Amino acid sequence: MKVIADEKLTSKSLSEVVRERLMRLIARGELPPGGRLNEVRLAESFGISRGPIREAARELEGQGFLVSRANQGFYVRAFTPREIRDIYETKDWMEAAFISDLAAHTDTATRQSILADIDTIDTSDRVAFSEGLFRFRLRMSAHIDNRFLADLMIALYRKFYIVSVVEKMIDEPGQLARILAVARAFWTAVVADDIEAARAVMRDDTAYWLSDLPPRDEAASPKRREAIA
Length: 229
Fold this sequence. Notes:
The protein is mainly α. Helices cover 63% and strands 3% of the residues.
């Protein structure tokens, strides 16, 4: 595995920065879905001991980015097209309930604050964007009145967060811009209390991401957009 020179770490970094470095290696495809983490080579590349590598790997496993196998180590989480389709079909169903909750229980000031909050999402790179988008969605979910629904939405957003890092993105700048544009269009409609327009935005968004996935009954896996939105 090739690791560029600026990945070298100092003693002040340790597990948190190792986690960030590993996330970026995954996002760049240097640690691909299904790939095994070579702790020895990573430690040598980062200029540290294996301890912080293992600590960061355990944290990433807990967050769902890695999986561990007995006596084999850690592997990058891999998603099948069927799994991604399942996520998006669930998104479609859950967002219908989410929008109904927003329409009934949020006022204009709250909706405007959420719309403005979109501008705080870091777009400097894909990992920063994915983390920023997930944090935005956590803040947004705090306004859901039905707390069981809120928990379900957070679980859904966490799954999107994982997929967005481990899956390859085609036309990354364009896709990130599109995700922000959809979020702004949705919340602009909600602020205007045009709930049907908001529903249409999210239905179209789901259809867009599903369009590159194979039908449920097909085993083939064509090239797909990254499922991030």
